[in-house]
Design a protein that fits this description.
The complex is a heterodimer. Chain A is mainly alpha-helical. Chain A has twelve helices and no strands. In chain A, helix 11 packs antiparallel against helix 12. The longest helix of chain A has 36 residues. The model of chain A has no long low-confidence stretch (mean pLDDT 91). Chain B is mainly α. Chain B contains 14 helices and no strands. In chain B, helix 4 runs parallel beside helix 8 and helix 13 runs antiparallel to helix 14. Classes of the chains: A mainly alpha, B mainly alpha. At the A-B interface, helix 1, helix 3, helix 4, helix 5 and helix 9 of A face helix 1, helix 4, helix 5, helix 6 and helix 7 of B.
């Protein structure tokens, strides 16, 4: 490689590195500030690293501010929602792709059209409805919006179209019931797309804010984002404490991203190219 | 296939979609239709106790909205966010995708992940982080600007700067998603096109202008529509960072809907805002699709 070419590569990658530091900067500062002593971040010029790292804020958050409870609530909603959504959406996506039934195509087109409707439009009547059903202030109530995502049905359907019909017909000739076929032929074939759907559902359930804010009124039922927003109202001056809370809130989804990122990337790329 | 088998398959098909369609029907289709009905009533705190006290009031909620200065301001703020934030976000995504896609890039997966990371984080948490970054006295942004002799700016405390600050946070948070969409588009452009253009002596800029951007056409439509629909729904950023202030400069339609509906319990009026939100989203989507169709060769 010539020197000029090498310089170009170095300069180019230097630029990328600066951009990457800018992108990650706020997250790195969040982690750093959460280990600072109380009041340390509120000095001028603001320190980038803690002078004397401490775990104090994490201890306070879990002992005095009940963060463990909120963490558990978030986890129940996100995991429960994910398991149910994968099952419900997996079945529907497969049926729309591979099973012939009356009204299938108009129904699917109606679903796609429904994707233009912002979810918030449904929130006011849904609140009134859930109140009548006694589901206000329950973790299940908070889970509802993620249970049957239309984009998920679309994603699974696109993937399920590639399952060979011969495979299904062979199983039918062997006398297998449709449910049996779904369980032992279709589910294994759909595993990659269901994994993608699972990580997306987990992420959106964990990060959701507006609906849990509306539906959960009792402090002991709060999810992490709701509790954090609430805490920020009272403790806006305690930067380091709040950053500790932010780290606890972000950490699970960030770890899930680190270990499962190929599913995110596949899902976004597949959804956009075919969509 | 015998008719019996067809019937079995049809039954199974309906069986498999029933859980999803029930949920979507009960918790999406019916509430959306009810929102429209609700917007024609005076449903309020008394109605929650006793539905019978609700009356149909025709278009009163809509005329009330038209007469409400805060509604117009929320509409302006929302359109500001959609029309400035949306294109900025798409431009940042495209720039990041072009950088990552380049042949000069080493460690492509590392950079891709670093740019995508903000998207997976929890909005409420990172909005708090940015609230401190924007702090007029101790914030990192003013400290950085101070190094080059600029500022200080009261980012979230000044009505002119609060919305741009929210837009910057939102671009930072979201550009990674559309970057991946653009990367998928870029990798589907045939390499031969570039080779042929290079043989004809086209430079990097010409290749971008005459091959890359036109070939990304469908991707632009997808990114445009998805980003716009999401932008109209902006709520958590102002809720956490500014509570809609200062001087209501960051009160958005959904924030106004939330306050009217769930703070003041004027659910009829809030439903009218929801209907306006839906009409705006629908109109914007149709407009983008039409522009795309008329510019296509």
């Amino acid at each position: 490689m010539k020197t000029a070419e090498r310089l170009r590569v170095a300069g180019y990658n230097g630029l990328l590195l600066v951009a990457a530091v800018l992108a990650m900067g706020p997250l790195l500062w969040m982690v750093s500030a959460s280990f600072m002593a109380p009041g340390e971040a509120n000095t001028s010029p603001p320190p980038l690293l803690p002078a004397d790292p401490t775990l104090e804020h994490y201890r306070t958050l879990f002992t005095s501010y009940n963060l463990g409870r909120y963490f558990l609530n978030s986890l129940i909603i996100a995991l429960g929602g994910t398991v149910l959504a994968v099952l419900i959406t997996g079945m529907a996506g497969y049926a729309f792709a591979k099973l012939r039934f009356r009204g299938r195509d108009p129904l699917f087109r109606a679903l796609l059209a429904g994707m233009v409707i912002p979810g918030q439009v449904a929130m006011l009547p849904m609140f009134i409805m859930l109140r009548e059903m006694g589901l206000i202030n329950t973790l299940f109530g908070a889970m509802i919006p993620v249970l049957a995502p239309i984009y998920g049905i679309f994603l699974v359907r696109q993937y399920a179209l590639s399952i060979p019909d011969d495979l299904l017909d062979a199983a039918r000739l062997d006398g297998a019931s449709e449910f049996r076929i779904f369980r032992s032929v279709v589910l294994p074939a759909l595993r990659p797309v269901l994994a993608t759907l699972g990580v997306f559902t987990f992420l959106s359930a964990w990060n959701d804010f507006m609906w849990p804010l509306i539906v959960l009124s009792d402090d002991s039922r709060y999810t992490l984002p709701v509790a954090l927003a609430n805490l920020a109202g009272e403790h806006v001056q305690d930067v380091e404490l709040m950053m500790g809370g932010a780290v606890v809130t972000v950490l699970p989804v960030f770890l899930a991203f680190l270990f499962l990122q190929r599913y995110y990337i596949q899902g976004i790329m597949a959804g956009s190219v075919k969509g | 296939m015998t008719p019996g088998e067809g019937r079995a398959e049809s039954r199974a098909g309906w069986g498999f979609i029933t859980p999803a369609m029930t949920l979507i029907g009960v918790f999406f289709a019916i509430p959306v239709a009810s929102a429209l009905l609700l917007s024609f009533t005076d449903f309020d705190i008394y109605s929650i106790g006793d539905f019978k006290s609700t009356r149909f009031v025709g278009l009163k909620n809509y005329t009330d909205l038209m007469a409400m200065p805060l509604f117009w301001q929320a509409l302006r703020n929302t359109l500001y966010f959609v029309m400035v934030g949306g294109p900025l976000s798409a431009a940042a995504s495209l720039a990041a995708a072009l950088l990552v896609h380049s042949k000069l890039t080493r460690l492509r997966p590392f950079f891709r992940s670093a740019f995508f990371a903000p998207w997976v984080t929890t909005l409420v948490a990172v909005a708090l982080v940015w609230r401190y970054i924007y702090h007029p006295q101790y914030g990192l942004l003013n400290a950085g600007l101070g190094l080059v002799g600029l500022g200080p700016v009261d980012w979230l405390g000044h009505p002119n700067w609060a919305m741009p600050s929210i837009i910057l946070l939102s671009v930072w948070k979201n550009f990674g998603y559309n970057m991946l969409v653009f990367l998928a588009g870029l990798s589907s452009i045939p390499e031969e096109l570039y080779e042929a253009a290079a043989l004809d002596g086209a430079g990097a800029w010409k290749r971008l202008r005459h091959i890359t951007l036109p070939m990304l056409g469908p991707t632009f439509v997808f990114v445009g529509v998805v980003t716009m629909i999401a932008s109209f729904q902006i709520f958590s950023e102002p809720y956490v960072m500014t509570q809609g202030g200062p001087l209501k400069s960051t009160t958005t339609l959904v924030l106004l809907m939330y306050e009217q509906g769930f703070r003041w319990w004027r659910l009829g009026l809030a439903a009218a805002i929801a209907v306006v939100l839906f009409l705006l989203t629908l109109g914007g989507t149709l407009l983008q699709l039409r522009i795309r169709r008329s510019t296509q060769p």
